[in-house]
């Protein structure tokens, strides 16, 4: 605690400064000033918690000083001293919320008791402020999620009894009670080898950035991710495809969201037809969802409005085409197999199915057939579980029909290569890359696949065929071998060992090591050093 003593009498200043054991009552720093002007200058840098101040002084009275300093620190504890019985001064002291008033000549015990009580009050006030700050910080952190829940409610059940009372809090939920409203939906795609965050962390980062972005605050749009992981914004007002209907605002919004998302995220936006009232928000959302799905058939560079939607029909899997694909691959007719994929894409583009998951599933079936054939031909070795997990994971992150087609074609190209091309030379390059990079943050199977220019699925299949173990198992063994080497040196801390084998969580490292080595890192070190 800091104390500032202000008095024009030198004797009083010295008496108060030197003859009270301030440290015994929690005062760590004491400064003095001879008048209000000097006190104001000193208080700016000292920032006292308690001010012990004479009322009548030349140049600037104690009241004038306190009035000026209250603007800087309205909660500072004020204790006034005076040798005069002046009602006007007393009124001013009351208005300034002075803690107490002590008559001169001062009694040191009385001053000490008053300051001690002021210290207690100041501490309680600081504690209260700290608790309020923590509550506010907690509220600020939760605000994006509160808004997300409101978005989900508005696009599904806007007439829910909880919606209107909540929307009355404009500072929290931004939107007016009455329409019109426009819903915007955006899909986000990225390569995990370029963005290492968990998808949930990425969504959290984006929502938090949206909640503080100045231009988006001006638009008073409510943002959240829906159950399909689309970024949904409910905007007050009407926005259409013509510039006279507010298209420029939507283009500005798209640019802001892409800046927030970052360069490695492919963000594609669809805009629904404006809703005249809150009850129409679900329909605006459905149209925004469809417009966003429409982006899958193009470059995604510009926003698509719902008035651009044309006839669309479901893509139905043709199992005869799948059988033909298998037959062509079994006899080495890769070009004929690729032609089936190209024709399938032409059919898909004609249908314009807006159920993108259904569309992706048809390509998944083509890819699964190709993989099964590769296994039968001895080109790959992979378990069904791993096969389907990797294939679907890769397909699901693809942002467009063109890229989806290219992904399947590249897999067929891999099958067309001779066994030597994807054989020992490629495997040597894969193992060399693993040993060079396994300890790095962001090292993933996808990063290996990108380096050797194979799909993740085909990489895993080829590696298992040649090594008789999965690539994941090989990476784990490599990390364990390096960890054992490092643990043999007692100067290297276990947390450092974990970091140097590419594991940032020491608890996970202990579990991981024990599962593979049969003992904890500490136990292994004890045995190794004996």
Automatic annotation (TrEMBL):
PROSITE patterns: HTH_ARAC_FAMILY_1, HTH_ARAC_FAMILY_2, RESPONSE_REGULATORY. The keyword DNA-binding applies. GO terms for molecular function: DNA-binding transcription factor activity; sequence-specific DNA binding. Residues 2-119 form the Response regulatory domain. The modification 4-aspartylphosphate is found at residue 54. One of its GO terms (cellular component) is cytoplasm. Its main location: cytoplasm. It comes from the Bacteria. Residues 428-527 form the HTH araC/xylS-type domain. Keywords: Cytoplasm, DNA-binding, Phosphoprotein, Transcription, Transcription regulation, Two-component regulatory system. GO terms for biological process: phosphorelay signal transduction system. This is Two-component system response regulator YesN. It comes from Paenibacillus cellulosilyticus.
């Amino acid at each position: 605690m800091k104390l500032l003593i202000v008095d024009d009498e030198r004797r009083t200043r010295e008496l108060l400064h030197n003859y009270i054991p301030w440290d015994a009552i929690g005062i760590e720093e004491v400064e003095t000033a001879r008048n209000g002007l000097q006190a104001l200058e000193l208080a700016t840098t000292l920032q006292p918690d308690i001010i012990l101040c004479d009322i009548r002084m030349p140049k600037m009275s104690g009241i004038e000083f306190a009035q000026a300093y209250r603007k800087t620190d309205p909660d500072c504890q004020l204790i006034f001293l005076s040798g005069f019985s002046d009602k006007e001064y007393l009124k001013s002291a009351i208005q300034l919320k002075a803690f107490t008033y002590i008559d001169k000549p001062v009694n040191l015990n009385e001053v000490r008791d008053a300051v001690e009580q002021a210290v207690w009050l100041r501490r309680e006030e600081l504690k209260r402020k700290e608790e309020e700050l923590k509550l506010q910080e907690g509220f600020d952190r939760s605000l994006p999620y509160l808004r997300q829940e409101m978005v989900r409610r508005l696009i599904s059940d806007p007439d829910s009894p909880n919606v209107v009372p909540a929307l009355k809090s404009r500072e929290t939920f931004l939107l007016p009670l009455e329409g019109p409203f426009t819903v915007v939906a955006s899909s986000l795609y990225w390569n995990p080898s370029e963005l290492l965050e968990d998808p949930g962390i990425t969504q959290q980062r984006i929502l938090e950035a949206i909640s503080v972005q100045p231009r988006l605050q001006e638009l008073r749009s409510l943002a959240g991710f829906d159950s399909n992981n689309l970024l949904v914004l409910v905007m007050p007002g009407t926005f259409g495809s013509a510039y006279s209907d507010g298209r420029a605002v939507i283009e500005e919004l798209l640019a802001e969201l892409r800046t927030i998302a970052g360069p490695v995220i492919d963000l594609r936006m669809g805009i629904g037809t404006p809703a005249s009232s809150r009850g129409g928000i679900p329909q605006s959302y459905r149209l925004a969802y469809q417009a966003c799905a429409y982006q899958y058939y193009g470059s995604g560079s510009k926003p698509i409005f719902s008035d651009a939607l044309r006839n669309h029909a479901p893509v139905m899997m043709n199992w005869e085409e799948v059988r033909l694909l298998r037959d062509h691959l079994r006899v080495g007719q890769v070009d004929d197999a690729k032609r089936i994929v190209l024709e399938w894409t032409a059919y898909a583009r004609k249908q314009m199915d807006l159920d993108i998951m259904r569309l992706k599933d048809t390509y998944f079936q083509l890819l699964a057939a190709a993989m099964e054939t590769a296994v039968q031909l001895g080109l790959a070795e992979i378990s069904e579980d791993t096969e389907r997990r990797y294939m679907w994971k890769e397909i699901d992150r693809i942002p467009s029909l063109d890229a989806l087609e290219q992904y399947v074609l590249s897999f067929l190209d891999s099958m067309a290569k001779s066994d030597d091309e994807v054989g020992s030379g490629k495997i040597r390059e894969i193992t060399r890359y693993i040993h060079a990079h396994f300890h790095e943050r962001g090292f993933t199977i996808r990063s290996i696949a990108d380096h050797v220019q194979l799909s993740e699925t085909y990489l895993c299949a080829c590696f298992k065929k040649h090594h008789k173990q999965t690539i994941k198992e090989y990476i784990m063994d490599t990390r364990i071998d390096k960890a054992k080497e490092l643990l043999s040196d007692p100067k290297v801390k276990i947390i450092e060992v974990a970091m140097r084998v590419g594991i940032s969580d020491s608890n996970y490292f202990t579990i991981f090591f024990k599962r593979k080595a049969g003992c904890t890192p500490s136990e292994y070190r004890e045995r190794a050093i004996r």
